[in-house]
Amino acid sequence: MTRQFLGSELSATENQPADALFQIIPCGLEATVSYGTGTRKGPEAILKASDQLERNVQGFEPCQQGIFTHSELDCTQPIEQVMQDLRDLTADISAKGHIPVTLGGEHSVSYGAVMGVLDALHQKGESLGIVQIDAHADFRVAYQGHHHSHASVMHLLAEAGLPIVSLGVRALSTEEELARTKHGVIAHDGPMLVRNNISQIELPDDFPENIYVTFDVDGLDPSVIAATGTPVPGGLGFYQSLDLVESTLKGRRCVGIDLTELAPVEGLTSNDFTAALICYTLMAFAAKTATK
């Protein structure tokens, strides 16, 4: 049986697949990593750590609106099939009015997860924008021969026409910087945010009402989470990252979430717990927007 997010904290009525607002999708894909390994173990580590969470987070209990954890996707398949399976599942979840929460796995999983949500919204004539927390731009055309690479996922999504707000980036190539500009990415990079202690931003009025949050844990400073494939110093603080995301959701609706790039290290369970807490806090933000 699949371990459930929040585990024994959930009542029977809060853990029903047909009714739960939040639908957790474990997707431990590790196919294109280019430095540290271990992201395939991320979903299980987050689910295990979630057993230690309190129901209440920042004065809110998102679990009251239901959390159901699906069986882990088969990531032994070719990456294109994993993407399609994930896309189909998030599209189905979104079409039913639920919020998919994908647990990676490497950041490439965001492509399938986001495109499924977009498919469902297009059926209703609605648009989607992305809020990205990340140390890296992930805007390469391809990387090390991989089209669906963790280093190119945001470029693929931009090519699909999705507007992007990027928060915390502090490692990018010249080519990526040019490509971000070409695609109109709204970039609030790490050095500016951290040096000026900025924790609130305002999105343009014409940015889509529906927001998908993709949270790569390497966007955080390694002092917060070090267990990730490509850590970069000078990152966002715990509360700073969450405050930034929450500020982007003002007057908008969060319709999808993913948390990626946790590479658990044996004995360092604080990293797993921090990732689980971030995930649950993002659910709290989404639940608040769903009640508007």
What does this molecule look like?
By secondary structure, the protein is α/β, with parallel strands linked by helices. The chain has a single domain (7-290), classed as Ureohydrolase domain (Arginase, Chain A, 3-Layer(aba) Sandwich), CATH 3.40.800. It is built from eight helices and eight strands. The chain has helices spanning 42-50, 79-95, 109-123, 153-159, 174-182, 190-195, 238-248, 269-290, and strands at 22-27, 67-69, 99-104, 129-133, 164-167, 186-188, 210-216, 253-260. Strands 2-1-3-8-7-4-5-6 form an eight-stranded parallel sheet, sandwiched between helices. The protein is globular. GO terms for molecular function: agmatinase activity; metal ion binding.
Let me know the average pLDDT: 94
**CATH topology description:** Arginase, Chain A
Strand order of the largest sheet: 2-1-3-8-7-4-5-6
Number of helices: 8
- CA radius of gyration: 17 Å
Largest sheet report: 8 strands, parallel
Write down the secondary-structure element order.
Answer: EHEHEHEHEHEHEHEH
Per CATH, the class reads Alpha Beta
Binned, the helix content reads 25-40%
CATH superfamily: Ureohydrolase domain
Any idea what the CATH architecture is? 3-Layer(aba) Sandwich
Specify the structural class.
alpha/beta
CA distance, first residue to last residue: 35 Å
Overall 3D shape: globular
Number of domains: 1
Strand share of the residues?
5-15%
Low-confidence stretches: none
GO molecular function: agmatinase activity; metal ion binding
Organism: PS1 clade bacterium
Pfam families: Arginase (PF00491)
InterPro entries: Ureohydrolase, Ureohydrolase_dom_sf
